[in-house]
Design goal:
six-stranded antiparallel barrel, lipopolysaccharide transport protein A fold
Amino acid sequence: MKKRIIGLPLLLLSGLTQAQTETPEPAAPSALPFSRCFSHVPLLVDSATNDPNAPISVTADVLDATRDGKIIYRGQVEVEQGTQKFNADQVELEQTSRDVLATGNIHLTDGTISVDSDKQLTSNLNTKNTELDEANYQFHGEPGRGFAKKVRLSNNTQQVDLKGASYTTCPPDGEVWKLKASSVKVEQDEVFGEAWNAVLWLGDVPVFYFPYLKFPVKDERQSGFLYPSFNFGDRNGTDISLPYYWNIAENYDATFTPRYMEKRGTMSQLEFRYLPIAGQDGTFYGEYLASDDKLLKTEWQDDPRWLVNWRHNARFDAAGHWRANVDYTKVAGWDNAYFDDFSPQVGQLVDDQLMQSFSGGYYDRHWQVTTEVRDYQILRPELTTQPFQLAPSVALTSYQGFGRFDLGFDAEVTQFKNDADQVYEATRVHAEPKLIYSMVNKPGAQLTADIGAYYTHYEQDIPKSLSSYYGDQDPNGLGFTTAGLDSNVDRLLPRARLNGTLVFDRDTQWFAQDFTQTIEPQVQYLYVPFKDQDNIGLYDTTSMRQDYYSLFSDRRFAGLDRISDANQITGGFTSRVYDADSVERLRLAIAQSYNFTSPRVRLYPSDEPGEIKQSFLTFEGDLNIDGNWFVHTEAQQDTNSHRLAGGNITLEYNNQGKLAQVGFRHLNADYFPDASLTNDLNQLGGTFSWPLTPDWRLIGGHYRDIELKRNIDSLIGVRYDSCCWAVSLVWEQAQSQERLLNPNEVEQETLIGLRFELKGFSSFGTGNGDFTPGTNLLPYYRPFNLNN
């Protein structure tokens, strides 16, 4: 939609009709998307609704016609044509030359801008050129407004020229800043206006001179500088970024950002976004630092530091059957500290791993075929092995219903490669058919029988000797040996599962309120026979974390390299409470598995067979107290040793912008060896975001490791957000580690961030920016599972 910069002031009077006609109803105005700050801003009316042939209504107290061909309107002159309106105390029309002169209380608008002047307006109905002296202007639907000594409208009002002009987005009673210029030009089809010899004023103080600049007059994309960001920290010193946005085309744009870091140098950042054709979009992001001043006199002093991230999503047909995705992130091979030092906002760093994935396939309602090539970059140089590459993997998944029977089939072929020396590799072929029979399917009662099988074939390439990490000739390794691994392995395991659920409900009252409570018992029996699998290497398999839902799974391990034997029964209870409006207020769930025979399949050959026949007693609970207060808790209890393996509890208040959350979490190091814990984990902390006044907001967060008696992350920030400007200041202190220079030391790094915004000067509508609750290490999230 094109916004008109200014309406037709008098050219709508194609002759200043002397007859008064009825005016049609104006088009409905658009909703104003602004807060109380912009109550003075008129609503925007779509200028496309203006009909140039619509009837014209002219009213005045007095109408005079002179002998020399002049028509004079006096006293409350009003002219209307649709949404276009013009008012003045007196209007003179020379019928021969078509010149118009208006004086006194001049007001004109076309639904996109209003202009007012107490001086005079001159215009010509033939040339369509109009001039006003000492005029105030106000855009509709956006807060831009100002004053000009002279306003000139030309090219059928497509262009507006202002002399001696000012511009601001502040309301009339609070002009914190304004832009004053000797000359300003605005064109109807342009997003930005142009100003020459412009001075930025803060209050009554001039602070900056611009020989030439552009400023936004529409909330649309346009090339130009964005807000700079300032950070002051121990690690990088003064850290300043100044982004420049380049609106290349309707479907392409780029942002260039020079980032100056006092202790490291100047980094170049580039983000390129593209929409080449319908159904495809992507982002390319890169960072480059030619040399790091902080690494002088080290082996890396001449090595550049860089990051590349590419994300692409594609749909190749209208139905979305054929799709492809790219998720690729990589840094320099030696640079394991890049994410710690520069905190890039792209890429997924999980367990110090960066993923490079290319995937695609055909997706149908009942089946899909996908393929993926995947690699990882590990940012932990102390590891002697690397994760396996998928080179490639092809998977088939299908599911079809036949009344009370459902038939499923999963299959895959995957080749695992590894760049490290003395590491086994493999090609794995897996097929998993299953048949599900719904024995009972009624409201409040379900019982399903599930039978299937796992067939897996491995062709393993075993080196002459394995790395000590795997345990070949190393008693502290994982237990794999070249003699224990087989080149060809076939594994066939049947599986049977019976799962049933009942739902009972009752109406009840608590605290004089009506509620509905449910009791939902669930029972599952699972049987999988034992088969020794120590002759198979581990390629993508690890232990699964136990929670309520995993206990009802048919797997004890994530991945296919280990299929655990099972002869177990699992029982669980879920209870829910709904209020009279069907809002779920409470959910409690507890479950435990009992093994008739202890599982014998081990993750690593060096693992000792377990004799424990009971799983953790797992509990989860969520509570919505009144729509503002929420509680979430989880716990896993070892019922054999009567020890708490893990747990957490979170309390949150969330009401109309007021947010406060406090939580505690515990992990027992004996039960979570994969977490690399040397001591039990006991962490207490919380975060908040709280409005102090309509303009002031305070945020904060603090997390402490009780076991190690040290702070993990602390943050406090304050923001002033007025109608036309905002400033925020954030102080944060968090644990950091100099992986390249001091890899064994953990330090507390202090970071100070400052953000200053003049709304509508650089880019209108930036909102709160990055001023959010939580911290960098532990961002805010809602853990609640209630169905509301």
